[in-house]
Amino acid sequence: CILHMATTVVHEPLDLVRLSLDERILIKLRGDRDIRGRLHAYDQHLNMVLGEVEETVTTVEMDEETYEEIIKTSKRQIDMLFVRGDGVILISPPLRTS
């Protein structure tokens, strides 16, 4: 359900990003990287500044003896982060309930 107040109407994709300002969002990046953080700023290229960031990097390694895939994840906390828009695959806004 989209609210029809002037500030919450979504007409184009960047409106959804605008509505997520100062909210915690999930960003999937190239290289199996996920970032969750509070969106402080963005531009038309999807360059973004995030605060209170948690970065999760997923790597897949092959066990040389059993040839099984070993999936590893590493996490780190970052106070402030600039994300370059050309690496962005997906932006998930916060869940909104009406």
| Rg over C-alpha atoms, rounded to the nearest angstrom | 17 Å
Number of strands: 5
Structural class: mainly beta
Shape: elongated
Strand content: over 45%
SSE pattern: HEEEEE
Helix content: under 10%
* Main sheet: strand order: 4-3-2-1-5
Q: What is the terminal separation in angstroms?
A: 7 Å
Number of helices: 1
**Poorly predicted sequence stretches spanning 5 or more consecutive residues:** 1-6
Average predicted local confidence, pLDDT: 88
Main sheet overview: 5 strands, antiparallel
Please describe what this structure looks like.
There is one protein chain. By secondary structure, this protein is mostly beta strands. The chain has one helix spanning 13-18; strands at 24-29, 33-42, 48-62, 69-83, 88-92. A five-stranded antiparallel beta sheet has the order 4-3-2-1-5, with no helix packed on it. β2 (33-42) and β3 (48-62) form a beta hairpin.
